[in-house]
Amino acid sequence: MLNTGTGAAQTLVAGPSGNYLAVNLQPGQYQVTAELSGFGAGKKTVTLNVGVESTVDFSLGVAALSESVTVTGESPLVEVTTATPLSVVNGEQLASLPVLDRNFLVVAQILPSAAPMSNLAVSTRFAVTKFGGVADQRNGYTTIIDGTTVDDATWGSPVINMTQDAVQEFKVFRNQFDAQFGSALNAVVNVVSKSGTNQFGGTGYYFGRDKNLNAKNALATSVPPFQQYRLGGTFSGPIAMNKTHLFAAVEYLNIDKANIVALPATNPFAAQQNGNYPFTVTEKIFDTKLDHRFNGKNSLMVRYAYDNQLTPSGGPVNASGTITDYSRSHSVVAEDNWIVSQNKVNTFRYALLYHNLYTLPANFDLAIGRPSYSVGQNGVAPQYFPRTNNSFFDTFYINTAKHDIKIGGELTLASSNFEAHFTEHGSFSFTTDLPFNVSDSRTWPQSFTMQTPGFYNYKSKQIAGFIQDDWRLHDRVRLNLGLRYDIDTNLRNNDFYTLLLANPLYKGLDYFVSSDRGNDTNNVQPRVGLTWDPRGNGKLVVRGGFGHYVTRNRPWFDETAMDKALGSAVRITDPVALSRFPDINGVLNGKSLADYVAQGGVRSLYLIDNSYQLPFALNTTGGFGLQLNNVTSLDVDVVHGYAGDQLGTTDKNLPASGPVTAANLRPRPQFSQVGVMVNNGRSWYDAVEIQLRTRVRGTDSLQISYTYSKSILDGVTFYSTYSGTDRTPDNYSYNATDTPHNLSIAASTSLPLKFQLSGVFRAISGGPRPVSAGVDLDGDLNTSNDRPAGLPQTVGRGDVPSQLAIINAFRTSRGLGAVDMSLLNIDPVIDLDLRLTKVISLPHNRRFEIFLEGYNLTNHTTLYGGASAMTSSSFLIRTSALDARQTQWGGRFVF
Question: How many CB atoms lie within 10 A of CB 596?
C-alpha cells in the first residue's frame, strides 16, 4: 500500500481468509497492490476521506491468465460499512467555496441539520453553528482536530480555528457515531489537518474588504466603518523523502468595523445610545505538522496549533453589554501508530490543550439593569479562565475475516482556574424604565446583587473506555456494535461541599446539599447500527441505528458554584433597603460587603445539585444511500432524538407556596436566593435529512442539503437560567433553535478562459422568539422567565393569535400599549454568496488565483434581536440585522 503523495508504503500480510487492515491513514490517494505466488498481481488506486472505512477487495487470476490488473477508483459514493449518517467536506470545497469568516464550522452549515446561530435568540457565546435540537447547543456537538477535542471548558465551543488552508478535510457524523466518540449528544465534527508530501509546495494569500464596497445595514443610518485584511500562507515538503514530511501554515486577520446600536424611537435610551461604535477584531493563527515513518511498522505524527483571538463586542462605553473577549490557545498532539501484526494495530495519542479565555468590561461603573437597556459594569466581567488539559488515548485494532474491532480508552487530567469578579461593584435590577423616584415605590429596584472577587481552581479526571465491532454478518449485511463508558471523577466537586458543610458560616446548608453526594456512574452508552447492501454492488445501502450518548461536564459550572459560595455574595430584595438606591453603603446598612455577610446579612448561593448528572441523548436514525450515477449520490435519513437531564437552575430556598414575604419566610432565612443547577430539562428533535452530492472533480462539485425538522424543548437553554415558575415549571415550547426548513446549495464549476464560479445559497427558517413578563409574577423575587399563564416561553410558532392575545392582555394590565401581530413574525435567513476566480497558470506547476466574492448578494434583510421582556418599550422590536451585501477581493499564489 503506497501513499502517492508522501511515498509512505506499508506491507500487510493477509490472514487465512484473505483479510487485511490498515488504520489511521492520512486522507489522500493510495495505490494498493495485492500479490500471491502463482497469481497475477492486482493493483487499485483509491482515494480515502477522513473517517471513512473503505473496503478494497481483490480477485486475483492465475498468472498464466492474468499477469497484472490495474483498477483506478475513488472513495465510495455510498458508505456501506456504517449506519451513521455522515457528510464530508474535502479540501477542494474548502479552497473553492466563498466563506467570509474562513471558519470550517461555517462551511459545515452547508450540511444537513446544521444552521447558523447568528440570528437565533439563544446564548451563543463563540458558537457559530448549530447541529440538531438539544437544549444547549454547546452540549450538542464536539469538535475534534487530529483525533483530539478542542472544546472550550467554559462556553463549550471550539477554541481553535485552524486556517482553512491547513485543513485537509473534515467530516460531520450526524445523530449517530461510533463508541470511540464521546462528549456530544448529536454531532461530531472530525477534522484532519494537512500533511507534507514528497513535493515542496505551499500557498500565499490575501483577502481584503472595505466599507466602500459594502451595502448599508438595514438598521444603520449610514454605512458603518469597515476595513479588513487577512494575510496568510502555507509551506509543505519533505525533510527526508518517503520518510519525514513537514507542513506549516500561518494567518493574520485584522478587522476594523463597527457595532450598530439601533434602539427604536420608543426606547427611552435610544437618543443616548444609538450610533455606530467602532472596534477592532484580530486573530493570529499558526499550525504545523510533522509526519515521520520509523519503518514499515511504526510512524509518528506531531501537530501544534496556536490561535490568538481578540474579539470586542463594540458598543457604548457605558453599556453593560460592551465587553472584549480574549482567547489564546495552544494545542499539541503526538500520535504513534504501531503495526503489531498482520491483523493488529495500536494507536497511542497524547494531547496538550492550554487555553486562556478572559473577558474585560468597557467600564467599572455601578451596574443598572432595566427592561429596555442596561448600563454599568458587565455582571460577569472581568473574568479569567486559564486551563490545562493533558489527555492520553490508546486504541487497539483487531481485524478478522468477519470483525473489525476497536478497543480503547481515554484519560484527561484537567485543571481549570477561575478568577471571578461577578458584580463586584454592585448591580441594581429594575422592572421599569421609569426614572428612580424615592417617593414612588414602583420605580425602586427589584433587587441588588454584589459579591467579592476571588480565585478558584477545579481539577478532575475524565476517564472513558470503549469497544466497537463492525461485524460482517453477510456479504451484504454489516452490524455496527459499540459500547462506551464515561466518568468524571470530580463531577459534583464533593470535597468542596464537604468542607463547606463543616464551616459554621454556612449553617443550614445541609438543607440544600449533603455530604453523601456520590458521583454519576450511570454513563453506559450502547450503540448499534445495521447496513444492508441489497444489490450487492455498493450502490444502494439501507441503514438504521440507535445510540445512547452523554455530553461532557464544563468546569465553569463548578467554578461558578465555588465563587458564589466562597465569595461574600448577596442578593437583596428588601424594598426598604432598595429605596436607598444608588447608595450601596445605605443598602448594606453602612457596612462593607464582607462585614454585612459576617454580621448576619442574608447570603445568596449557587450550588451543584446532589444528584447532578451529565445530560444524555437517545437517538434513532433510519434511511438509505443511493448512487444515482457514476458521480452522484442521494442520502435520505429520518431522525428521532430525545435528550434528557438537560441543565437549568432552580431556587431551592422558596416557601412551599405563596410569595416570599416577612410572614412567609424562606425555609432557611439566613440565605436569600439559593440557585441550584439541576437536571430539569428535556428536548425532542425529529427530522428528515436529505443530501444530494456529486463527487468533486477538480473544481466541479454540487452539494444540496435539505432538512425538515421540528425541535421541542421542555426546559431552558443555559445551565444558569431559571424556570419561570420554580415550583411549577411550565417550559414546554418550541426550541429557540427550531428551524423547520433548512436548504443549502453549494456548487462550483469551471468556466472558459480558466475562470471558476462557486457559490453557496441558503434559505433557512428563523427561530421562534423567547419572551418573559419582565416582572415577578409568582412572588419568588426573581423575574427570570416569568410569563402569564398559557404563554409558552417562545412565540411566533404554534397558536400565534392566542400568544398575541395573552401578551396584549398582560401589557394592557400594566398600562402598556398593545403590540402588532407583525412583531411575532419569524424572520427567515435567505443568503446568496458567490466567488468568481481567475486562474493564471505559471511555469513549474505554479498558479496565481485572483478572486472576487460577494456575500448576501440579493441584499436580503434578516432582522433579529429586540427585548424579550413584555414590560420593555422595545418588546420584540428588532434591534439588529444580519450584514447587508458585502464584497471581498483577494489573491492566492500556489506553488
Answer: 20
